[in-house]
Amino acid sequence: MTTKINQISVKQLLCIYVIIVLSPLIRVVPSFAANYGKQAGWLSPLVSLIPTLTVIYILDCIFKRYKTESMAAIFEDIMSKPLGMIIVFFYFIWSTSLVALYMRYDVERLTGSIYPNINFIFFIIFTLAQIAYALRSGLTVIARMSEVIMPIIFILFAFLILLLLPMIRHDTILPISYMDTLPVIKASMGSSGIYLYYFLLFFLSDKLSYKDKLKKQSITAIIILVVSTTIMLVSIIGLMGSSVVKRAPVPFLAAVKQISLMNTIQNIESVAVAMWILADFILIAALIIVSLNIAKTLFNLKDIKPLQNIYILLIYILSLGISTNKMELETFSQYIMIPVNHIFGLLIPIVLFTTGKIRKKL
Q1: For residue 269, which of 251, 244, 247, 246 has the smallest C-alpha distance?
Q2: Residue 229 DSSP SS3
Q3: In 3D, which of 357, 354, 343, 359 has the Cα closest to residue 87?
Q4: Fewer beta carbons below 10 Å: N end or C end of the chain?
Q5: Is the pTM of this model over 0.90?
Q6: pLDDT tens digits for 6-32?
Q7: How deeply is 251 buried, as exposed, middle or buried, from its count of CB atoms within 10 A (0-12, 13-18, 19+)?
Q8: H or E segment at 199?
Q9: Alpha-carbon distance 305 to 25, whole Å?
Q10: Do the Cβ atoms of 22 and 279 come closer than 8 Å?
Q11: In terms of DSSP bridges, do strands 208-209 and 8-9 run parallel, antiparallel, or are they unpaired?
């Protein structure tokens, strides 16, 4: 299957999607699930299927009507041009906030786990320089990189999980009862808030081909993610218990370090860090491309390349100011970004779909 020049297939976009959500899932979801769902927190990704499948259905309906238009143009047509442009502008703010957030998370992890004596500003500059170079080749190169990187990441992830599974204690994940229903629903807000990045990526819809395969391939991708997240939570909560997981700075890394303590393999956490570095590179690069594509519509530009250096400078400034320490980052993610993700990733798409039906645009 070939795609048109400067376009990518739905399959390639979903490869990007799987990679960009994997890093936040590992970083945020274990603590969130353990805090709200306790020992039943590992069930929370299953509940997250409902909002994600809802958005998949909405987009499938939209692209049956709008086959070549950009998401920004779809908002303008359905919601009216003034309101549509305002909504698209807030999507630009959301995507830019995510770039700055994950840029800072990336360097905080490097300085916290591998290079504690190096100033984090160096890593921000170094990472942004690499991404700026990669972006010169455009979206198609990032998409091809994702097709190569995704199997590598999943092999590393599966390797770590297989080492953790024999160490699970059943009393930390069982028993569960109907009384766990509400806590599990609350816990699902963490994973669904990240799965809902799905909608944001479709601001690249004008660069997509083979949209007729969207629904089937998207459902496959989200099932893979839900199964992977569930197994990860079973491994982490099952090993350390929910009371420890919710207090751990990075529960997945803490769990992986237990493998070293069991004298099976030494310094195995370096595998987890390598996996994160690969995922974060695609995460930040993809979100920058999305943001620039939105900016292209907002400012009515023919080409986004003149904006790249200016935008990367903006990300440098925002990533410096978004927090002063890792605790502030985690608080910002949990109490601000997770609810905001639901607004932009679920609520607004529902409003868009409902308005489209009322106005007979869909």
Answers
A1: 251
A2: helix
A3: 343
A4: N
A5: yes
A6: 689 999 999 999 999 998 998 889 999
A7: buried
A8: helix 197-201
A9: 31
A10: yes
A11: parallel
